[in-house]
Every structure is written in C-alpha cells, then in structure tokens.
Amino acid sequence: MTDTSTDRDTEGLRDRIAAELARTRARTALLTEAVDDADLMRQHSPLMSPLVWDLAHVGNQEELWLVRDVGGREAVRCDIDDLYDAFKQPRRDRPSLPLLPPAEARAYVATVREKVHDLLDRVTFDSSRLVADGFAFGMIVQHEQQHDETMLATHQLRSGPVALHASPPPEPTVRVPAEVLVPAGPFVMGTDTDPWALDNERPAHRVELPAYVIDAAPVTNGAYRAFIADGGYDDPRWWTEVGWRHRRQAGIAAPMHWQRDGDGWSYLRFGRWERVRDDEPVVHVCFHEAQAYATWAGKRLPTEAEWEKAARWDPATGRSRRYPWGDDDPTSAHANLGQRHLSPAPVGAYPAGVSPLGVHQLIGDVWEWTATPFRGYPGFAAFPYREYSEVFFGDDHQVLRGGSFGTDRAACRGTFRNWDYPIRRQIFSGFRCARDARPDEAHR
Ligand SMILES: [Fe+2]
C-alpha cells in the first residue's frame, strides 16, 4: 500500500514538473519570438541584457544544475559557461560578448531540455536534499520564470513596433477601504514547509509586531499624481538625504515612462502611449520615490514583516497562510500574475484575492517596496549555493514583495522575497504605505 501511494506521488511530481517546465518554456518562447533576430541581439538599455543572452543563460543554468549536477551527465557545452555567468559578465558588457546567435541559442536550450526530460523520467527524488520534493527542478522553473519577467522588463524598454499583445486586466468590482488595522501580536514569518521555497524564505520564525495600519491597496496613479502636483519632487523635506541626492542627479520628476500630456499624463507601455489611469497602482517608481511619497502622505513604507503579516496572518486560526486567500495556488481570479495582462489591474479588481484582514492586491499587479534591507532570517543557511541570495545580503538592496503582473505564480508566494537597488525602476515596482496605529486605534 505504502509503496503504491509513494509511486503515485512520485509520478504526480514528475508530471507536475514536466507541466511547469513546458508552461515556462512557452512563455520564454513567446517573449523571444515576438521580435526579430537583430532585435534579440540588441541591447535596449544598459540595465538589461540582450534577450538572446537571457535565453541561453536560462539553458546554461538548467544544464549546470540539472544535467550536470543532479544528473551527473556529460556537459552539453562547457565552452560557454563563462559567457552566461551573471557574476562574471556585467549586464552593460553582455552585448559585446561572442553570444550564441538566436538559432544556436534556441537549439542549445532545446538540447538541454531533452536531457532534462530524460533525467526526469529516471530521477527518484530521494538521492539528495537537492532533488527532494523536486526542489532542483522547481528552482530551475523559478529561475527561468524570473528571467521571463526580466525579459518582459526589457520589452518595456525597447523601442520599435509593438511586439506583445494581451487582454486588459479585469475592471474593479468592489470598493476598497483606504486602510486596514493589523492588531498587535506575533505571527509566523517565512516557511519550513513550502517545498520549492528558496533559501532566503527559510526558516519559519515567530515575529512580534505592535499594532499598525496598512493601506488596503497599493498606492494608485491618482494618489501619486497628487504628490507630483503638490511639488513632491521639488521639496527635499519628503526625501531622505540619499534619496534627494539621487532625485537631483538622475533628474527624475515622475514615474519612469510617464510624459506630460496636456493637463494630465500619459505612459508608454510596451510601445503604446496611453492616458494614465487614476485607479491603477503606480508602477516604475524607485524605492526613494516610494519613500518620499509615503513621508509626504504622513505615512511610511511597511517593513517586510508588516507586509507579510498583512498578507498571510489569519486571525481566526493564528496560522500564516501560503497566500492571502489561503493555501491554494493562485488562479486568474485571485491575482494579476503571469503576464496574462500587460499592466497592473485597477484597485478592486481582485476581491477573491483579499487577505483575512481585508488587504487587497498584495500578490500580483506591482512589486511592493518595503522599508527593509535584504538580510537572512535568523537561522538562515545558504542552499544550494551562496550566490543565490547570501551574497546580496546587506544594506545595498531593499526587499520587494508580492510579485507583479509580469511574475509567474511559480515564482510568487506569500513568503517570496525579491530584492533590488533602491534606485531601480525599470522593474515593475510600486508600493503601499503603512503607519503606526494610534493608541485609540490599537486598543479598539
Ligand atoms: Fe539568472
């Protein structure tokens, strides 16, 4: 009996991994087939790689981890390892490398994938911690999905004819309140049990927080426009010293991709100009802009722990959920994920995704800047290698949470942590605000 159900579990895991690999590769194919070969080889911004670099890099990581490490197989191409090593090749230098041309890159990733399917047919998921629960395969799926989001950001930066198409996100169906009170008390942050959770999401640990108030939705374009109209970009009072210096040096005066349009604003989205929509979460702002807005609004950015408690804590059970709506994987009703739409959705469009406390759109739409620099949790242990997260710990990177419309569900959980430099805004980044609860609120 036990053997039979174990066999069935193993087969189920194999099927699920195969399906995730195929789904992910279809997205990669769409993003790299939407433009011609010359466009794939071109660098659209010094911040980004040519798309063809991302493509072969995804295959190279898959070869290193699955074909060579897990599978113990012969290298497909060890001559290109250095070219596609993200640590050895800074992004700005990647276009001048002797990269595999598109046809060769496509053939390479296909060959690697064939070997991975062969390995997947035989692997038993019990030979090492790396393969337990299919972790190494899950890591590779998430890695490719992360590059798919990076490639989407590259598409947003490219000029030329429109290449990507998607339906608009759903319209709002509920009114969302301004703020939600989160009562004082402990909650469990991070995870020990999510099988594909990465090292920086572990271990689960108890965090005690005082009462606080968090915005029930991400800050909208309409609210952000009021900050601009009030001279927010011209008043150093709202900015930190380093933020103000950056604002002056970079000459920023509105979110990236915005342009004045008569008495309002328009934004450029994947090659199309559109009027800025007021009820949509603001996107393409850096940490410093988010922080300045929050100060102007009389608030602050939430800490990472505050964001996660608002997203996961269930007051009825005291448990932390995988997602705001429960433990089930996201569907199209829960959140705007997976590049299904090419913009954030207006506030109130995802009532099924609300958290137990009534906080909306925590998952999907826009990555949310937090006030917390990226560090390991108490008891952190690097796995499977230091370069995944640990080398980025410290004060240089701020944590972002929740995923964006460009993030796939495989690379997005209530515990998932993203990080970036506080000046970055080519990513799909927005934010929501928080504040300490007043005594009269805290003791209601
Ligand atoms: Fe990578």
Index terms:
globular, 3-stranded antiparallel sheet, 4-stranded mixed sheet, single chain, binds fe (ii) ion, 444 residues, alpha+beta, 12% strand
Contiguous runs where pLDDT drops below 50 for at least 5 residues:
none
Apparent shape = globular
The unique ligands bound to this protein are:
fe (ii) ion
Mean pLDDT across all amino acids: 96
Return Rg in Å: 22 Å
The amount of helix comes to 25-40%
Measured distance between first and last alpha carbons = 54 Å
In short:
32% of the residues lie in helices and 12% in strands.
3D structure, described in words:
With 444 residues, the protein is an alpha+beta fold. Helix content is 32%, strand content 12%. It is built from ten helices and twelve strands. It has helices at 2-33, 37-41, 51-70, 102-122, 135-157, 221-229, 241-250, 287-296, 304-312, 439-442; strands at residues 179-182, 185-189, 205-209, 212-215, 258-261, 264-269, 272-275, 367-373, 398-401, 417-420, 429-430, 434-436. The strands form four sheets. It has a four-stranded mixed sheet. It has a three-stranded antiparallel sheet with strand order 1-4-12, covered by helices on one side. Strands 5-6-7 form a three-stranded antiparallel sheet, with no helix packed on it. Strand 5 and strand 6 form a beta hairpin. Helix 1 runs parallel beside helix 5 and helix 3 packs antiparallel against helix 5. The mean pLDDT is 96. Bound molecules: fe (ii) ion. Fe (ii) ion binds next to helix 3 and helix 5.
